[in-house]
Write a structure and sequence with these properties.
Elements (H helix, E strand, L loop, with lengths): L2 H26 L8 H11 L12
C-alpha cells in the first residue's frame, strides 16, 4: 500500500472516530430538551407554548 493511500485511510479513521464521539456528546447536551414528561408538561403550561413529544428508540 502506498504512503498516500495509508495516510488517506488514517485521516478517514480519525475523522470517523471524532464524529462519533461528538455525536454521542451532542445527544447528552441538547439545551432545552427534557427527559421528564411531567417537568416538560409543567414548563409548557407555564410558558403557554405547546408540548411537542418525540418518542425514539434508544439502545
Amino acid at each position: 500500500m502506498s504512503v498516500s493511500r495509508a495516510l488517506v485511510w488514517m485521516v478517514v479513521l480519525i475523522v470517523g472516530v471524532v464524529m462519533l464521539d461528538q455525536r454521542s456528546m451532542a445527544q447528552d447536551a441538547i439545551p432545552g430538551w427534557h427527559t421528564n414528561l411531567e417537568d416538560a408538561r409543567k414548563l409548557a403550561e407555564s410558558s403557554g407554548k405547546p408540548l411537542f413529544i418525540t418518542f425514539r428508540c434508544v439502545r
